[in-house]
Amino acid sequence: MAATVLILPGLGNSGPEHWQSWLQGRHPSFRRVEQADWDAPVLADWVETLERAVAASSAPVVLIAHSLSCILVAHWAARGAETGSADKIAAALLVAPPDVESPALTPPEVHGFGPVPTDPLPFRTVVLASRTDPYCSVGRACGFAVGWGADFIEAGDLGHINTESGHGPWPDGERLVLDLLKDIEP
């Protein structure tokens, strides 16, 4: 059975030129999880929306998260471990997690996602971060990966790995997703 791939954009959604939108265009079976409010996120609402999306899948799920949704996955996994829904996750790629606990680095709209859970995630996880991300130091992102029990990729000087940093088409990201899918296919 093929995996269900869920694309999880961050604050503001991923616009048409963003690498997540490009990836979805190249792989139409990948589904974007649509949040009710992209600009004023409420953690409980985002967690519930992700819970519904995972529950709707009969196949193993791969999560492809960017920015704020990386932190969403950590919060959801803590809840999903209690409900059993986290067992449906085969793997997750978490790209450019922001430091939502830092008022100096992140906007106030995301601070309700703190504190960041640091328990190990109950599924294979890869965290990818940039040395030049304005929303999180690479050391802090690596700390998230360690707490989550994730593999960590320090990707160089890629900014926030979004449209503003030149990441519309992102073949390296696509390769990571396809490698995760290959690893979980029987």
UniProtKB/TrEMBL annotation:
<dbReference type="GO" id="GO:0016787">
    <property type="term" value="F:hydrolase activity"/>
</dbReference>
<keyword id="KW-0378">Hydrolase</keyword>
<dbReference type="InterPro" id="IPR010662">
    <property type="entry name" value="RBBP9/YdeN"/>
</dbReference>
<dbReference type="Pfam" id="PF06821">
    <property type="entry name" value="Ser_hydrolase"/>
</dbReference>
<protein>
    <submittedName>
        <fullName>Alpha/beta hydrolase family esterase</fullName>
    </submittedName>
</protein>
<dbReference type="InterPro" id="IPR029058">
    <property type="entry name" value="AB_hydrolase_fold"/>
</dbReference>
